Amino acid sequence: MYLGIDLGTSGVKAVLVDAAQRLVGQSTAPLEVSRPHPLWSEQDPEDWWAATGRAVAGLRAAYPAAMAAVRGIGLSGQMHGATLLDNGDRVLRPAILWNDGRSGAECAELERRAPNLRAIAGNRAMPGFTAPKLLWVAAHEPERFKEVAKVLLPKDWLRLRITGDHASDLSDSAGTLWLDVGRRAWSDELLAATGLGEAHMPKLYEGCQPTGALRAEVAADWGVPAGTVVAAGAGDNAAGAVGVGVVAPGSAFLSLGTSGVLFVSGDRFAPNPERGVHAFCHALPGRWHQMSVMLSAASCLSFAARLTGAADEAALLREAEAYGGDSNAPVFLPYLSGERTPHNDPHAKGVVFGLTHDTDRGALARAVLEGVAFAFADGLDALEEAGGRVERFLVIGGGARSALWGRILASALARPLDYPAGGEVGPAFGAARLARLAVTGEDPETVCRPLEIRHTVEPDPALAAALAPRRRLFRRLYGDLTAAFREADGA
Questions:
Q1: Which residues does substrate bind (predicted)?
Q2: Distance in angstroms (rounded) separating the CA atoms of residues 4 and 428
């Protein structure tokens, strides 16, 4: 039995997977995000620990015998978050998250200090990444910066709590802007550009390697054997890829979670930073991947449900389905937290354009689904500039449950979408697979096989034709409003 734990932005998910790779059970615990100032996005690491405890307790209550048979634990988590510790491993401030946009000026400063950054890290400096956050702390909280002894990513802070080890995997660490991604090692040059050194960093491992063992007191609390192996794990997207079997070069997935991701696996380091495409290490040795990332995807639907007073997201989707479509319906820009690929614009804002007296909740819901799909299409254009054509995508994430959204996405992207059985489990399942590899040393290709495809959604030519002029308006609106976004933020 293997336990996978995924520390997401909106919650912690824990899953139990047996030796036949069957999902035995799952449990979740919610998290909240603090936004005390414009562009800020933070969480208290102690809230991660409490939510992890609740999620694991849910499994222990429902499956005590299975928990007692756990042989390995894998971790996945939200990427890029800066968790700052002093020399006693005490948290110095709330963690600055991946969707925090405060460090725009620091990105420019980092690129000035490290002119080789894009070649080494494979990415341009963006506010979401970890390194610019440290420059912001140094500039705005200098006394706190002086106390920093270790910087850990969110899931790696969880690892510290359960094993006592300062360790990370390469896929997650590739999102810091401190890693030499092609060489799969920390870069002294990039660390020095933020006033840090390798001593501030955790030890690096491949995602399928063991990093330590569960502390006895944690094992007793969780109801698992003492000394259980803890794998290095992965950033959430690489873990999701491992979970659905996107490990072979050229295979790809679309993740419709809080954020939106198009992910393509490869066997070489192939960056395209100018278009905001991310080039990172994969969670398995000798593999890399490219991603286009949008900061708000399924979270846009949650936002719309809350804004319009819908009972929940499912009810709002039903209204969108009933509405159908209309060429004069509103157009939605989904930039509620700014945007990464392809705009690299922390100042971008969410916009609903084209409201009339006839606009109802169903029309707004439909606009949200289309706007997210158009942003994915922009990301696909950027992604394919860096490599060859991507022929099809597996779909994972909570938004994958919407059939309507699938039809809109397939038609906007002009690509078939394959829906795997169990794909909604996502990164937590991949973390459990990495735990198994850390324990058994099996061939990763054998364990990380693709999931069975439940159904495929093909592009609808009529729908694609109807969406095309709306996507042109979508792109024009962003271009027309770019300067206004910056002005609104005083930039």
A1: 79-80
A2: 5
Angle, CA 4 vertex, CA 154 and CA 450 arms, to 5° = 115
pLDDT for position 196: 98
Q: How buried is 234 (Cβ within 10 angstroms: 0-12 exposed, 13-18 middle, 19+ buried)? A: buried
Sequence-distant (≥ 6) Cβ neighbours of residue 263 within 8 angstroms = 237, 240, 241, 246, 252, 253, 254, 255, 289, 290, 291
CB of 296 closer than 8 Å to CB of 335:
yes
* Backbone phi and psi for residue 212, each to the nearest 5 degrees, phi listed first: 165, -170
Check if 267 is active-site: no
Strands 288-294 and 278-281: antiparallel
In DSSP terms, which residues pair with 456 in a beta bridge?
418
> Whose structure tokens read 């932005």?
9
pTM value?
0.85
List 236, 345, 378, 418, catalytic entry: 236
pLDDT in tens, 357-409: 999 999 999 999 999 999 999 999 998 887 778 999 999 877 777 899 999 99
Burial 437-473 (b: 16+ CB within 10 A, else e): bbbeeeebeebbeebeeeeebebeeeebeebeebbee
- What are the C-alpha distances in Å from 97 to residues 102, 237, 323, 338? 11, 16, 36, 13
166 carries a ligand binding annotation: no
In contact, 26 and 67? CB cutoff 8 Å: no
The answer to whether the bond into 342 is cis (omega within 30° of 0) is yes
Structure letter (DSSP) for residue 36: -
Whole-number pLDDT of residue 259: 85
* Total Cβ atoms within 10 A of residue 311: 9
Q: Residue 423 — pLDDT band, cuts 50, 70, 90?
A: low
Environment class of 340 (CB within 10 Å of its CB; exposed 0-12, middle 13-18, buried 19+): buried
Q: Which amino acid is at 124?
A: R
289 is annotated as contributing to ligand binding: no
